[in-house]
Design brief:
By secondary structure, the protein is α+β, with helices and mostly antiparallel strands. It folds into two domains: 8-75, no CATH class; 81-201. Helices cover 37% and strands 26% of the residues. It contains five helices and eight strands. The protein has helices at 8-20, 62-91, 104-114, 169-172, 179-195, and strands at 35-40, 43-48, 51-57, 98-102, 118-125, 135-142, 147-156, 159-162. It has a five-stranded antiparallel beta sheet. Strand 1 (35-40) and strand 2 form a beta hairpin. The radius of gyration is 20 Å and the shape is elongated. Mean pLDDT is 90; it is low at 199-204.
């Protein structure tokens, strides 16, 4: 199940449906939120425009509906994280003494608690190298569409150096049609940045 690609159209529609009845829109009517409901046997199909975003029992509350959206979104987020991890494993050339950390469980905890829409993916030292050879990367991946913000720095004698200084906006804030493509773009950007480091810092 987790090996299938995330449904991007569903993610966009489900987040829009969730936003339509949450926060400042908590008291907005279902019609104003663009939601429609169809009863089939003992279930209710919920659609945002033309996309089915949830299946509910006959009787449910607005809170139940929000929780249902987030539960289905969580499944798609797990797929997205798995898809990106596979691409990073294949394409990303980590500097020696560094590892990749996908903060998926923290992301999902915040998603369930308050509808958090981003996943942090880090590259950080694994403890085997001195701090003055350390590289730190944060990829803030958004969960409503395949897009991200990428930050990368390395230590030097003067402090921290931005490894993406001068990089195009599309490199720092990439977008793609799917999460595999997003991970491939980020890998290419970071590999170019890592190639500018001293050779001793690069993985074999």
């Amino acid at each position: 199940m987790l090996q299938t690609a995330p449904n991007i159209a569903y993610l966009k529609a489900a987040w829009a449906a969730f936003a339509g009845i949450s926060g400042a829109n908590a008291k907005q009517s279902y019609e104003a939120a663009g939601l429609s409901f169809t009863r089939i046997n003992h279930s209710t199909l919920v659609r945002k425009n033309d996309v089915q975003v949830s299946t509910m029992p006959i009787h449910y509350t607005r809170h139940d509906l929000r929780v249902g959206f987030l539960g289905r979104i969580e499944n798609e987020v797990r797929k997205a994280a798995f898809e990106m991890d596979a691409v990073f494993y294949r394409d990303l050339e980590l500097p020696e003494g560094h590892h990749l950390v996908i903060e998926l469980e923290e992301c999902l905890r915040l998603l369930r608690r308050r509808g958090n829409r981003s996943l942090s993916i880090l590259i950080e030292p694994d403890g085997s190298i001195p701090l003055d050879a350390a590289v730190r990367v944060e990829m803030r991946v958004f969960l409503d569409a395949p897009r991200a913000c990428v930050y990368a720095c390395a230590a030097d004698a003067s402090g921290q150096v931005d490894l993406l200084d001068g990089a195009a906006k599309r490199a720092r804030m990439p977008r793609a049609s799917d999460y595999a493509g997003l991970a491939a773009q980020i890998s290419s950007t970071l590999n170019d940045a890592f190639a500018a480091l001293p050779r001793a810092q690069l993985a074999a």
